[in-house]
Amino acid sequence: MAGNTFHEGLTPLNTAPTQTSDDAHGYYTPGEKIVDPIAPEGPIADRWTTRKFENRLVNPANRRKLDVIIVGTGLAGGAAAATLGEAGYNVKSFCYQDSPRRAHSIAAQGGINAAKNYKEDGDSVFRLFYDTVKGGDYRSRESNVYRLAEVSTNIIDQCVSQGVPFARDYGGLLDNRSFGGVQVSRTFYARGQTGQQLLIGAYQAMERQVAAGTVTQYTRHEMLELVMVEGKARGIIARDLVTGEIETHLADVVVLASGGYGNVFFLSTNAMGSNVTATWRAHRKGAYMANPCYTQIHPTCIPVSGEHQSKLTLMSESLRNDGRIWVPKNKEDCDKDPRDIPEEDRDYYLERIYPSFGNLVPRDIASRQAKNVCDEGRGVGPIVGDFRRGVYLDFADAIARLGEDAVREKYDNLFDMYERITGENPYQVPMRIYPAVHYVMGGLWVDYHLQSNLEGLFVTGEANFSDHGANRLGASALMQGLADGYFVLPNTIRDYLADGPFEKIDESHPEVVAARTAVEERIQKFLSIGGNRSADSFHRELGHIMWEYCGMERTEDGLRKAIDMIRELKAAFWSDLKVLGTADTLNQSLEKAGRVADFIELGELMCIDALNRRESCGGHFRGESQTEDGEALRHDDEFAYVAAWEWGGDEGQPVLHKEDLIYTAIEMKQRSYK
């Protein structure tokens, strides 16, 4: 990073791209270019501070007259509900789980980034900003990312004050560890339970506001439609998942914090109930879906063991701090006990290819290299399908260097989880890991204030696209969720709410009635098809298509084939779906039908987006665009833009709007971790 990397942010360092290739011609309609209308200017280090001061305030008396709906109770949604409730707004909080504490944020294991530089190893706000933009392969907005890095330092103080039990060193100071894509230690952690501990902190802060009467909690409720009145988001239609009742909830503003859409692949590390419905219903109402093809494949997951599985299990990336990744050099050794393979016959391929970063390369790179060695026939573990899907993650060196007790103190719950699932003791035998779908960088388009192109609809956390570009660095998901919920949204939504109090609407308004009627008709449609296949069977088939043709490597021919297959699947879904039960009770078959219907439409758009983007960047790897040694090859002159897709109607084509990415603080370069 030496030399002229640092720029204040006053002069453009690149020009707007001009796309000349068009692999997706005929699949979409070109639209007008868009810009973030409120993007800040000036020195990058001053933009967020200046904007916070410029944003209008809402006095305490008026806050009590304003209603906010928040969909989702993970870190982004829970933190936002707690903070806005504390400020005095009337908040309605919705989640489909039986408790906010079961939001998927609880599953995050490894840690949360913050530019505290407690290790005095050269970290800073600018370095976190630089690492995040570089890790995202220069496909994120620099203003949003710098704000994220700047706010990160406040998050740790907030969480410590809540009692989050971060790991500490012998002297009692907060400890750090490294994660992929960086060369400093900036990741704060609570053993392998960081997400759970942070969520408990946000949960208790929100429950305090529930007790105070500023937050009303609706569990086991699923948002099925966005209510738009006179061009503004004014509420949601939700289904009580226990009674089946369709409910109308109205407010002055709506916040979506409903997470990502990784379950479009069926097999992923996401919770089984994680879905895209909240954001997809908003997309169908006109909200742009940005960069949907940007999905992250996590390199450190327990391998697939057979067709019986319905989800995959993540092993924290933190394990790559001390574990060494390798495969046998010789194919004939792949079925041997790894302890019988001598050191000279092991290929520590990440350390060999990327000597500067070794096992701590970013997730997209580690995932592709794991796929490459398995494709060569050097994978390990049982044969699943037609080849072995696994590489070793070996802790023998760490145990010899640190002692088993020290390794157990850092990772014991992760090792125990691995042993319970696989029946193998990782203290004695190397773990086996393989890449799996984990996180999505795409999501609803938002401006600098986190407001979508639909007035009054704000989107936070993984549900929006704004911070991670084409690849998320490890430990940055928790950082973004809490940054958005605690510090960003409360300072931006007030500028919108300063125009209130707003005119009240009721359930009899024609646009509200139309939204509710659409939900009721959709539910009856699912129940009336009367076919022979379950929603799960369609979901599994969709997942196979997405993984095969829009997974770790995409090609023009494969994506075209996938689009045709998804369209055939969609037709079969609406003619052969079988939903058991009725609408007026608990009915998980009905829940799944709605979610899978939305996943099918999303899957087609993801493939069109991937087909259009004839470059490799981050988690999006096009086989036609790679360097001689197989690394991702970007084409900034054509594709340095955000792809913001507008819904084109049931019978129409999606409309592509481009937001050019202009950098003023970082020069765009081809990534290298060697």
Describe it.
By secondary structure, the protein is an alpha+beta fold. It contains 17 helices and 22 strands. The protein has helices at 47-54, 60-63, 75-87, 125-135, 142-162, 194-212, 277-284, 349-353, 363-378, 396-402, 404-422, 477-497, 510-528, 535-550, 556-576, 588-612, 636-639; strands at residues 29-30, 67-71, 90-94, 112-113, 187-188, 215-218, 221-229, 232-240, 246-250, 253-256, 289-290, 295-301, 324-328, 346-347, 383-384, 387-388, 391-394, 431-440, 443-444, 457-459, 641-646, 655-660. The strands form six sheets. It has a five-stranded mixed sheet. A five-stranded parallel sheet has the order 6-3-2-10-20. The protein has a five-stranded antiparallel sheet with strand order 12-18-17-13-14. The longest helix has 25 residues, at 588-612. The chain is globular, with a radius of gyration of 24 Å. It starts with 28 loop residues before the first strand and ends in a 14-residue tail after the last strand. The mean pLDDT is 95. Residues 12-21 have a biased composition (Polar residues). InterPro entries: FAD-dep_OxRdtase_2_FAD-bd, FAD/NAD-bd_sf, Fum_R/Succ_DH_flav-like_C_sf, Fum_Rdtase/Succ_DH_flav-like_C, SdhA/FrdA/AprA, Succ_DH/Fum_Rdt_flav_su, Succ_DH/fumarate_Rdtase_cat_sf. This is Fumarate reductase/succinate dehydrogenase flavoprotein subunit. Residues 539-673 form the Fumarate reductase/succinate dehydrogenase flavoprotein-like C-terminal domain.
